[in-house]
Amino acid sequence: MDKKYSILHISDLHKGENNDFGHLFASLCNDADSYEKFIQKPEIIVVSGDLAEGSNGEGADKKIQKQYEEVEEFLNKLVDHFLSGDKSRIIIVPGNHDLYRGATINSMKVLSDDMRDVAKKHYFKGDSKYRWSWEDFHFYFIDNEKEYSSRFKFFVEFYNRFYNGIRIIDDCDMLNSIIELPKYNIAFATFNSCYRIDHLNQIGAINTSAIAAAQAKLSRAFKHGRFIVGVWHHNISGVPTQMNYLDPRVLHCLMDFHIQLGLYGHQHHTEALYEYHDVFKQGKMTLISSGCLYGRGKSMPEGTHCQYNILEIEQSDNKATVTLHVREDETAWEIPSWRKKQIEGRDSYSMEFNLPTIDYSRVLEDCISLAKVKGNYKEAIEILISIRNKEVTANKFIDEFLQKLSNYDICQLEFVPITTAQVIAVMGASIEMRNWSTFDKAVLSIEEYGLQNGQTNVLIEDANKIR
Which of 234, 321, 361, 442 is most buried, by CB atoms within 10 Å? Predict the structure, then answer.
């Protein structure tokens, strides 16, 4: 199960009004031409929040919508360039800039002074509906929960429009999608670390109900031997004057649920650290933050330049080695000029992880259920392909499930057909779709595995007449 690929990890895209995403895109493409001599071109993209800058006051709605239109165009170009248009391989979570503060302002009422003692009691007990304002020294109460819950409405609209049915968010506070990419033997656990964040509360948090609801899918990914990576927005520590970071106690739970690597942004500079280590369970979670990709606001740390990460991942049967490369803008000009950034005096930094042992019989059962009960034949086949070298009976079900897929889906599967049924299915779909690259691969399989028969001969003749 040797695999090698890389991930483009970007965060904090919130560009200013005078910046141009076209300039940023051109610089990233140009940089890829440079680093591809020694780093693999990314095949997966992770965007860890703060896609928009946000806006308040009159006309804020239109300004924010325009910001998402601009970032959507930019991400579409990025997906086309790096992922050949495959949006299933881009992972996106929201950040604190992605919430609409107008909704939180309209959802609260100021409490009168005679309510101060009552409000103080509720506030210090952790009642989620009470807020304190240091600006006017008053307590506030969330009296319109529906309005408050809509604070991510612009992000949700963008997300659902961008993915166009590939993924959907209904409730952003319950975001807990587990996104498996079987070809890469990786699974991403995505969370919103802006739970209960608003204009008066900047403390990062992940909804514990969202984490608990993800347990079953994370357990399945673990039993499938996946390298599980968490993605959220907030960092987990800050200076004494800050409160806008994530409670680190959440890491224990995430580690218990088999997440070994966490990717985030927010702090606007790249950092790699072993932040959580459990000596009793002999477990650890490594955390990697990405710097600010483009925005150069007041929150940029002194002397910090725009940055982004490339993570090279090399997997064997029981190990995953992750090598972090940091790219930094050296000019702070309108068109970024990227260079490699030293990490503790080195060009890169490598980390090693143990991969879980695959329970092949359990994976097989899950794939059969996924296909025959839930009707998701394409995902089932992709998982079966990833285990068939270790579990030969998987081929029987690949043969069967291919009959349930459309010709288009069959041509999108990246695998080598190794049975007669698989070759015939791929050849037939390729002829219908006029996809001669997949057809030629099937012909090579016929020769390699000795799968020639009357039906394959007929299909080859049909193809030769058409081509």
Answer: 234
